[in-house]
Every structure is written in C-alpha cells, then in structure tokens.
Design brief:
heterodimer, A: mainly beta, 6-stranded mixed beta sheet, 5-stranded antiparallel beta sheet, globular, B: mainly beta, 50% strand
Amino acid sequence: TQLLEQSPQFLSIQEGENLTVYCNSSSVFSSLQWYRQEPGEGPVLLVTVVTGGEVKKLKRLTFQFGDARKDSSLHITAAQPGDTGLYLCAGVRWSADGLTFGKGTHLIIQP
Amino acid sequence: NAGVTQTPKFQVLKTGQSMTLQCAQDMNHNSMYWYRQDPGMGLRLIYYSASEGTTDKGEVPNGYNVSRLNKREFSLRLESAAPSQTSVYFCASRTWTGVGNTEAFFGQGTRLTVV
C-alpha cells in the first residue's frame, strides 16, 4: 500500500525556472522528511519538518509541512543543473518500522 | 567517515541460487533497515530491526530472511533467488528513540540481477 503520493513523477525544466514538488497522504505522520538521491548512491537527508504548518528553507529550497501533517511540498527557486536528482519524501511514524517513501520525483535541470 | 557499508555493490545470480547481502554501520544506531528500490515503485521496506535482538517484517518480506548479528551488522538473505528479486537493495540505519524524526543513513546500495 502506497501511503504517500508524490507528484510529478518526472520533471524537466530549464535552468533558472522555479518548480514545486508535492507529497500527499491520507495518513498523519509524526514528521516528514525529504531526501535526495543521486545515481549509484543511497538517499541523503535534506530536511525534516515536524510541526504542522512548518516552513524550512535550505538556500534555494523551501520545504513546507501541511497544517494537518499529511502533506508537504518542496519548492526550488531558480533551479540549477546541480539540483538534478531523485527527490523522495518520506513519512515518519511514531513506531520503529522505518520510513514510508513516496515513489520519488525525477528532476532534470537543463543548462 | 564510513557510515553504512554494504557489500557487495553488484551481484548476478541464477534463479534458485542463494546469497547474503551484508550491511554494517559504525554510528552506534539501534535501528537498521533493508529496503528494495524498483523503477516506479520507490523504496519499499523488506525487514527491519528496531534494536539488537529483534527483527520484524516490513511491506515486502516474502522470499527474504534477515539476521541482526550484533548492534553494527544486519544481513539480508535470499534463500532461493527469483527474477522478481532483481532490484537495488539499500541498507539504512538510524537512532530510534520513540520520537521518530531522526535521520536515516543509507548505504550505497547493492544492485542485484537474477537471471
């Protein structure tokens, strides 16, 4: 059962454009994490959002957690080729059984 | 700066063969996980070990077994490999304190092909 729906699945845009990736669920999570994965590597954590309505900024990346703690978004401003990669959202539950991952967004930023 | 180390990085098996994927972490984490990643399916949890001495099934456990050898090591065994087990396997670890929002650290993955 896929509890986290991520969209879009693929996105190819030009350098300098803005973009938003969405992560939606019908379940409530204790927190939500965003990971970035490059080819041949494991995912690496970008950010954790914990409080409903929370907004976190990481340079040109802005992460938001929905008020009901069921959804999140990642907004990239002025995308650069170095932002290319697979972005994964992961719902964190109150139990020890790991993270629930969305299917990921394959992002390509063309020079 | 080893973090999570997985071996091997690549493996080709014939249908019916068995193998064990090894994972070790040097961050003193109590919880360890095995995921598989397939195109269009994202990362799916196979088994996890919340703490040394315990293991539990995840979302897709069929065809796999695990052993938490000690706090550092968590292995994944395929007893009789099938083509459906062709995938990239990731081991991960984190400190789980009951709050749940700690970072998970991943290995570099094992790319397994079953022919």
